[in-house]
Structure formats: C-alpha cells, structure tokens
Write a structure and sequence with these properties.
By secondary structure, this protein is α+β, with helices and mostly antiparallel strands. Helices cover 41% and strands 17% of the residues.
Length: 712
C-alpha cells in the first residue's frame, strides 16, 4: 500500500516508476510505446526503453478508470434530440424514484432515450509528456519531492500529506524543518510522533485543536449523519433543507470543544512536552485569550510549571499582555515609524510584512513611506511575493480572502465599509513597494541557474505564494491561464463514488461579478447547441458522473455581457468531498459524438477534490480571452447549493494584477536566457521534446514543487 501511495503521487507529476528489473525486448518496448501514444496520448521524453507490462497496466488503471455513464447515456447527441418536455418528465421520474422511493442503489438513466451507439474515436489530440524511471531513481525523486513539499510554507493537500508520511516512514527520512505550521500539525496528529514538536510553539496548539475539530471525521460525520437523516425524513426542497443544515452547523459550532478523551489526553501531553522544551511563547498566546480560556476549561488542565500557572491565571482574569494592542495604538496615532520598529523588534519580519499595507495606509508623508519600504530587506521570497500579490488587488471594493482549516472564507466590502476604508493605497505608493520587492527578488534569485530557455506560454503560469497543493494531472497554481483552442467544445466533467448526488454547475458572471446566467441541475437550457447538460445524477454511490458541453462562441453571442463562466461542484447530500472519491476536470472535444463520453486522450486536466467542504470552484473560462483560468477555490461552506448571491470575490481574483509568472521567476534565476532549447541547460516548456540530452532538464507548468523550490 505504501508503494502505491508513492507511485500514485509521482504519477501526477508525470513520473512512472518501473519496479521490474528485467527489461523487455526492444520490439515489445516499441509496441508498448505505440499503444501508450494511441490509447492515452502519452509520449516518453525519458526512459521509453524502460516500459513494460506493469507500466501499461498502471496506465490503464490511472487513465482508463471505469467512469460511469451519465444520466443521458448518449450524451451529448441524445440530449439535443430529446424534446424539452421529455427532459422534464425524465427528471421528475428520476427524482420520484430516488428521493421519493429512496432507491439510490443504481445510477439513474433516461426512460425516453433511444439506444445509442457511439462512433470510434477519431479526433486530433496533443500528446502529454511523461518519463519512466527505475525504482532507485523513483526513491530519490520521492525523497526530494517530500523535502520540497515540507520546505514550502503553503498547506499541502491530504494526498500530498499521505505521500510525505509514507516516504518518511518507508525511507527513514530525517526531517529537520517544516516551513508550514499547518503541515507540522497534520503530521504530528497523524503520526503522534513528538519529534515534530521541534517545529512548533505553544501558540500552535490553537492550530492543533482547530485541525482536530474541522478535519477529524468523528466530529463532522456525526453532524452530517444527523443532517442527512433529517433530509430523508422531511423531503423538503433544497432551499428548505439548506436552512436545516445551517441550524445543524450552528449547533456543531457551539459544541466544538466537546473533544474525545483520547484527544484531550493527546493535547495535554503536547502542552506538557512544549513546557518541558521551553517552547512557550506566552506573549503570542495572549492574542487568543478566549480560545485558551475555553480550552483549559474543557481539558480540566492543571499545571505544575510556575510560568504556565501564571499564564492560566492571567487569561482567566482577563489580563492581556500581547504586543498587538500596543502596536494598534501606535498605528492609530499615525506613529508609523515607531509602530514599524516596535513590531519588527517584538513580532519579527513576517508579521511586519503581513501588515505592511495596513502600516503604509497610515503614513502621512513620503519620508514615512520610504522609511517603511526600506525596512523590506527580507530574504524570504514567499513573503515578498505575498506582498506583491497583495498590492496587485484592483481598485474599488475589496474582497478579503483568508483560509481557515484550508478552506476559503471571503468578505466583500459594503458601501459603508468602502467609504470608511483607510487602507486603499495610492498607485504611487504601490509602485514604490513593487519596485522595492522586485529588486529584492532579483538579488535573491540571481544566478541560481545557468542557461535557460523559456516558452512564452509560461508567462501566464503564476507562481502563487499561498496556493494549496492539489493532486491531479494538469493542476496549476490559482490565477494561471491556459489558452483554449479555437472552435472547440469544452467539456467540464465530474465523477464520484461512495456518495449520492454531486452536482456540477456553471455560473456566468460579468466582469464585475454580477450573475448573468446559471446552468445547473434545475435549469434546462433550450439552446442545447450552446450548452448541453448530461442530466442530474442524484444517485451514484457505486459511481455517478455529470458533464456539460460548452460552445463558447455561441455563448458569447447570446450573453454579450458575460465575461467569465465559472465551474462549480457541490454535494447535495451534504458530505464533505474528503469523505468520498471525487474527480473533476475538463476535456477539449472537436467531434463531440466521436468516442466515449469520457475519453482520456482529450482530458486537459483531471484532479481530486478532497476538501473539508461541500463546495468547490475548480476553474473558470475567460470568454473574452478564450482562456481557462485555474481557481482552486475550496469554500468554507456546508451548503447544498453552490450558487452564491454574489461572485464579486471571484471577479476580483480573476482581475488581480499580480503577474509574477514562471517566466519571470526563471528570468530572474538564469545567468543567461537562450533562444533555442538545444543550447539550454534548463528548458521551461510544456512541449514534448524528443531530442533533449541527459544533461538537460525540462520544467513543465505542472512541476510546481521544483518551481517553488527555487524560491527557497
């Protein structure tokens, strides 16, 4: 099982591990390579001679999953041929069978659809680049990938976490530092290994408790069981059921500190160990006074340590000795220089840089602005990029995005808040900050690489400082853009197992985020040549799928004010994505009736949705530029309907002027930029090159771990 985790994860990095030491003959290797190209659209830029039967079996398992047929088996042609009143009747009969009679055991299908025979697949497609390595090479790649993941300050996905844990245990990897406190907490709770305590402080107990509450199955599944039981009994509509779930969620929050005894004992042991190791940053702990009061009450915690006892008494008596209160007082009095020096001394560079926009907004003259900017002398490139991204937010009402438990929460300013806002920086100040940061980045990254060739397409692939790592083929950082081919059909898809009723939807919005049109389970679009839907599959415990076919040209004609088309995924049965199997992505099709509904060769991206939420927003289509924009939004929500009243926060993300791209990064790192791949040491491109030599390294847009490792 451990080998499978490593092999599966590296597959999503386009790396295949060959376990069998005996090579097949050259004739059979050529045959296998031909099958891989024709069946899966794969070409091997390295290790093509290592291919064998086990590699072919693994590719079949990963790239030809038994994706269940959608509600309309003949999609999309049968949907186009079926009258709209038949579609309505199909839906009513299906709902009566599933939600009415409770028959969820088999996937539902149309009762009016005639038999449909598919044509053989005969479309053009682009090849995908893979490499094959030996088991020893795979081991070294796995170890280096683990070190790269854990040296990154972003929170990694559950799959990436399992991969790191497996590699550490299997190869006895010694981890000396983990950059992300969230990743440390996850590994600590998963392994119960106290060696990870060297990477955290007492104040990080807050993250540990939050992880147990938000992510641990017992607490969430108990509430979800109650919700689903209520839904089955009430048989109300979706809107009424949502109000029931909201009430259940409120009840869940009230009892969020009802920890199990085993978790209480574990938390107490961690606190005691940190006290023994003198890792007690009490001043920072005071910033979460209410949390500590509640936690100590529920733990019935008693300390024999004198300083800890004093801390407990202080927080229970309402005393607060944090640095934040004095810092806030200095900023409110416009004492910018004093506040800057104080916070750098007491809280450090990281806190200062996270609050730099707030501090600069209170600067009243150019001298104060320059004083603050000149304090930006950090070598932490990720923090520098975070500031660069922050100052790139467009003018107008701001949307504040932050994560809690790995999920996105957002708030868009109201009219009253916008009028009172004091942190909107003038363009002149933003330009000065950006110049300072880019100068520091150039200096930090200078001459890291030798000769580099960079494809111009890499200018639209972002280096995002905070993006959560995802598992899947074609996964990119949020904000990255991929040009869509002209005059093609875009087919978003989703398929799932071990749960009922996952909904795929589309939301068309204006440039400002106003909703123009929603296409989902309850909207039957008469213009099926523009958008065709495969049908609402409400069952699917043993496998379900949904698709849309989108003709972007016709869509723009009918809705000229529509700028973005956003894909949404939500679980109507109110179970978080992490509790079942769910994959999503999109295909690019030409002859839409050619081949199967799910055709591996036409898949451009396929990824796992595994967030602790029932709502995900994977990507959007920019209709103006004909580009796919990766979003990777996992909303902090247990909604059974993914459609918000406002998508302003997404419009702001799509319009963010942050432009630090993969091309920019490699330009900063290179000693020399060369004109052709043949003369380069590093080739940065997604093209398939068959003539690169062993001393040349190719970097693709999806090689996120390597790309981000250059920042450290």
């Amino acid at each position: 099982m451990k080998n499978d985790i490593i092999r599966d994860y590296l597959f999503y990095k386009h790396i295949l591990i060959r376990k069998n030491k005996n090579r097949v003959s050259a004739k059979i290797a050529v045959k296998y390579n031909l099958i891989a190209a024709q069946s899966y659209g794969i070409k091997f830029s390295k290790g093509a001679d290592l291919i064998d039967a086990s590699i072919m079996q693994f590719l079949e398992k990963k790239l030809s999953p038994k994706v269940p047929l959608p509600f309309y088996i003949g999609f999309p042609q049968s949907v186009k041929d079926l009258p709209i009143d038949y579609q309505v009747l199909d839906r009513l009969v299906h709902y009566a069978t599933t939600y009415g009679l409770g028959k969820f055991n088999k996937p539902g299908h149309s009762i009016f659809e005639s038999e449909y025979k598919r044509a053989i697949f005969e479309e053009d497609f682009n090849y995908t680049d893979f490499i094959i390595v030996t088991e020893e090479e795979g081991k070294q790649i796995a170890i280096q990938t683990t070190l790269n993941l854990l040296s990154d300050s972003r929170e990694i996905s559950n799959d990436a976490l399992d991969f790191c844990k497996t590699v550490i245990e299997k190869y006895n990897v010694q981890i000396t530092n983990i950059a992300s406190k969230s990743n440390t907490i996850k590994l600590l709770y998963l392994t119960k290994d106290f060696n990870y305590l060297k990477c955290i402080q007492l104040s990080d107990i807050y993250k540990l408790v939050n992880h147990i509450i938000v992510n641990y199955n017992l607490y969430i599944d108990y509430n979800l069981f109650c919700w689903w039981d209520i839904l089955k009994k009430t048989k109300k509509n979706k809107k009424e059921n949502q109000s029931i779930i909201d009430l259940s969620l409120k009840h869940h929050k009230i009892n969020c500190y009802s920890l199990r005894n085993v978790d209480r004992k574990f938390i107490i042991s961690i606190i005691n160990k940190l006290i023994e190791q003198k890792k007690t940053n009490y001043t920072t702990c005071y910033e979460k006074r209410r949390f500590w009061v509640a936690l100590f009450h529920h733990l019935h915690y008693k300390s024999t340590d004198e300083q800890m006892t004093e801390f407990i008494n202080n927080i229970r008596n309402g005393k607060n000795y944090s640095f934040n209160s004095y810092f806030e007082a200095l900023v409110k009095d416009n004492k910018v220089r004093e506040a800057t020096d104080y916070i750098l001394d007491k809280k450090g560079t990281g806190f200062f840089l996270r609050n730099i926009k707030y501090i600069l907004s209170r600067a009243t003259n150019d001298d104060d602005i320059d004083y603050v900017i000149n304090k930006i002398s950090t070598k932490n490139n990720l923090i520098l990029l975070s500031i660069l991204k922050l100052v790139g937010i467009p003018k107008g009402k701001r949307t504040f995005n932050f994560t809690d438990g790995g999920l996105l929460k957002n708030h868009t300013e109201t009219d009253k808040e916008y009028e009172k806002a004091k942190t909107n920086l003038p363009r002149r100040t933003i330009n000065r900050v950006s110049t300072k940061i880019k100068t520091a980045l150039k200096q930090n990254l200078k001459n890291k690489l030798n000769k580099v060739y960079i494809d111009d397409n890499m200018n639209k692939i972002r280096v995002n400082p905070t993006d959560t790592n995802l598992t899947g083929l074609g996964v990119l950082t949020s904000g990255s853009r991929i040009a869509l081919p002209e005059s093609k059909i875009i087919r978003p898809f989703i398929y799932w197992e071990k749960v009922n009723d996952v909904d795929l939807g589309l939301v068309g919005i204006s440039e400002n985020g106003d909703i123009i049109q929603i296409f989902n389970w309850h909207s039957i679009e008469r213009n099926v040549e523009m958008i065709a839907f495969s049908g609402d599959q409400t069952s699917g415990y043993n496998g379900g799928s949904e698709y849309f076919d989108i003709n972007t040209e016709l869509l723009k004609e009918k809705f000229p004010t529509m700028r973005y088309l956003i894909t949404t995924a939500n679980v109507y049965s109110s179970r978080p994505f992490s509790r079942f199997i769910c994959s999503a992505g999109y295909m690019v099709r030409d002859k839409i009736s050619s081949g199967e509904v799910f055709e591996p060769k036409t898949v451009k991206t396929s990824f796992t949705i595994d967030c602790e939420s029932t709502v995900a927003i994977p990507f959007a289509i920019d209709l103006s530029t004909n580009e796919m924009v990766w979003l990777n939004i996992k909303q902090s929500s247990f909604a059974i309907d993914a459609y918000n009243n406002s998508y302003v926060f997404i419009a702001n993300i799509l319009q963010n002027k942050y432009d630090f791209s993969v091309k920019t990064l490699f330009t900063y790192c290179a000693k020399k930029i060369v004109e052709t791949p043949e003369e380069a040491d590093i080739v940065v491109s997604d093209e398939v090159f068959e003539n690169l030599n062993e001393n040349q390294k190719q970097v693709h847009s999806y090689d996120l771990d390597y790309i981000r490792s250059l920042l450290f």
